[in-house]
Amino acid sequence: MKALEADAFLKQLSDQREAMWAKMTAERKSYGAEKPLTQDLVVRRLQFGVVMERKAAEVTAPWIAQVPDLDIQHSLSEYVANELKHCAILRGRIEELKGEPDALWKNPLKELRELWDYHASLDSFCELLASVQYGHEEFFPRTSKSFIQRVEPIDPKTASIYRDTLLADEEGHEWLAPEALRRYALDGATQKRCLEALRKGCELFARAIESFNRSTPR
Length: 218
Ligand SMILES: [Fe+2]
Ligand SMILES: [Fe+2]
Fold this sequence. Notes:
The chain is 75% helix and 0% strand. 37% of the residues are buried.
């Protein structure tokens, strides 16, 4: 693939991501992703969050030493710390609700394990950033919005954790992946691998979400 200008490359990545989002949105209702919540479902959703937050940190951390520029390296370290902080907050909330914080962490759904095994197997931090942070993590504010609306009436504290901490921090690091990709994904071969990683990552994410929803009581 011939190298693209940074703007055109980022546009291809986001077009690909939005196509995956459209597909996923069309499927979400069919497997009950928007069903009314019960306390048990809230705990289950928080347990899913524990895996997502901790794994995002774990697959990113090993790449920090490879980042050439100090500003990106510093921000990526803060990103990792933030995701681990989110994990700790979610675990705390599950304990308050008398659930088992690490139920899914210790015994992940097959599709959830495949998602994170894939990310751990990538060959460069550009591919990882394209797939996780510029890819399916961009869906988090969208799916959270619907979750917050549904959880607010039965559990305002959990709604507040999502709205005031998790989403607020998310906004703070949204700039990081596009800026790093702009700087480091310069040649055609790397860009092509990033596009493939984003496509595959979003596909595995959609499967993990579906599997998670199908695993919860109807
Ligand atoms: Fe997070
Ligand atoms: Fe995040």
